[in-house]
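Cross-check.
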Amino acid sequence: MFTVLLRKASVLNVYTGELLADQCVATKGKRIAYVEHENGLATTGQTRIIDLDGGIIIPGFIDPHLHKDHFDQISEFLRLAIPRGTTC
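Predicted model, tokenized:
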């Protein structure tokens, strides 16, 4: 079934800016398979369940094309990129 199940968290909807409370995020392999209220999702003994106890899940931006050589140090790039949602 699912590989990882993140439970009891709020999820930021980056399109509306709304924080959706009491959500569940489930992955299957390397892909996100489900984001919504848990509603009795079926899991197996091999599903890793992580209870986030009210934490917040925020999607990150993966930049597929970047010229790191424009920055003298990686710390300068990170200082600018992380607050804007770039995770890798």
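The chain has a mean pLDDT of 87. Helices lie at 74-81. Passed to J.P. for a second look.
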